[in-house]
Amino acid sequence: MQLKPFARSLAIALSLVVIAGCSSTGGTQDGDSYGTQGAAGTGTSSGSTTGAGAGGQYGSTSGTSGTSAGQQADSRIPEVRTIHFDYDRDSIKSEYESVVMAHARYLRSNPNAQVVLHGHTDERGTREYNMALGERRANAVQRFLNIQGVSPSQMSVVSYGEERPAARGQAEQAYSQNRRVVFNY
Amino acid sequence: MQMLTKTGLWKGTWSALWLASLLSKSTILISALLMSSMAHANLTIEITRGSDQALPIAVVPFATEGAPSEDVAQIIQDNLERSGFFSPLERNAIFESPDQAEDVQFGTWRSLDVRYLVVGRVTETGGGYRIEYDLMDVSGQRQMLGETITAESGNLRGAAHLASDQIFEAITDIRGAFSTRIAYVTAEGVGNAMQFGLYVADADGRNSQQVLTSDEPILSPDWSPDGRKLAYVSFETERPAIYIQEVDSGRRVRATSFEGLNSAPAWSPDGRKLAMSLSKDGQPDIYVMDIANRSFERLTQSNSIDTEPDWAPDGRSLLFTSDRSGAPQIYRYTLGSGETQRLTFTGDYNARGRFSPDGEELFLIHRSKQGFQVARQNLESGRLVVISETQRDESPSVAPNGTMVIFATQQGGNGVLSAVSADGRSSFRLPSPQGDIREPAWSPFLN
């Protein structure tokens, strides 16, 4: 459910670490981090869209991503657009807080940007109940963004339940990929 | 994106505004079910478990005049076997072929341990067929039925289903449900590259016809009590909305598209109302929509998930799933008093309850040690019994005569339909020719 105060301050602290670490060129270069797609030329653009939808799969989201500059990063839609959840839970895992924070920064910096939060579940359980669980996950992300100062008018929620799995299969590996919220701009 | 093709017969008086509201952002194709059976999508049946209490019956291949397009006796035999009530004699064990009651030698069939016998003949007439058949009680040495059915040339299967209904009822005293249909959803692909289809087919999986295709999810089909319309959820506008569609004409309207969930439509027994789960006011709650005047009544107001409503046959109460206790369980809401009673207490996951036609039992999805299974619970005793043998079951739907429950499950990683008798003794499967098949909904009686 909602983040506990401690987790929230941790998230803020983490995000400060991210910004502090931005001057380095380091970071994992596996395409998960924002700002790796050639920062040249798009400095003025507001939210130039990169690849559609399903971009940013899971992967390194530990907040060590290299960005060229905080300001510039906020002018681009963060590339990691999927966060994952534990079974039957809608709490945002600490490892994904930096991802959600990046989206919060982007949305605050770009008041005209709109995001649709797609909530998904794995296939276990009944479809209509899962439809409601997926909404609960997306709502949790929406609340988090709202707490971070994102205007409610910039956000909407659509639950797909178990109807659009990212991976097929009846093992935890597929299930864990399917329990997710995707940021759709 | 836009509507690509629309072959439905959009005549009549339905509001043009509503029609305009259907123009969606997704790829939608509505076909008018002009008897254009999609042969590739027909389902075949595999019997997976036979009942040890099944009655032995022999259906002798019917004598024919002309060249009937269907093997009527085989259709009857398959229907009776699928019901779980009968164990038909295999054809290669039949060595006498009487085609009318007068020619039956009872001793022959008694020696084969057959209790009932069906004999008959199919005659081609101008533009159709005449089917005459007799049902014999072998041990009582008497004729139970002697019927004549006329069929148009394209509807020989329908005639065979009608004969099956008559035979089933004559022996079991239970109305046959072989002339019914099922609706179901197909899905192929993964992630953003998926195709969904809504189909209806005869109860034996044949004559499948496409109702709707979309590149966005379709789910939760539910038949109107008159068997002429389907309510379902479609994401074709990239959001969930509930639609009502006439099966034969393809005409449809969008019933709801509120912010948040528009989920789990369920027709009231009188066909005038639709129960559903909406989250427009926060958490998903149960609402009832008056279809004619589009007014809504909110039934539940809990800080939990309330979904999957189903009407009691008498229309006075509804089942629904709620996680208000911390885990999904099934509750009953009584209209008028507003009294809400928890019904399920066995285990920590019971969902998607469906009443039996007599209102005395409910069928549901229960999480057992094996997984998610179809279970039956007696409402008076509260006793819950698992009746399926599979582990990833969803969406149980009860035949209108209460003898079978069709549900979705998985086989080899693919979604298939399966059906189990209400007593759990027999079952059969309808594998998908391709992709996943799911969300079965058994129609009411159609005749």
Automatic annotation (TrEMBL), chain A:
Main location: membrane
Ranges annotated as biased composition (Low complexity): 33-49, 59-73
Pfam families (alphabetical): OmpA
Biological process according to GO: cell division
Function: Part of the Tol-Pal system, which plays a role in outer membrane invagination during cell division and is important for maintaining outer membrane integrity.
Family to which the UniProt record says this protein belongs: Belongs to the Pal lipoprotein family.
Protein name: Peptidoglycan-associated lipoprotein
Organism name: Vreelandella zhuhanensis
Taxonomic lineage: Bacteria, Pseudomonadati, Pseudomonadota, Gammaproteobacteria, Oceanospirillales
Chain's gene name: pal
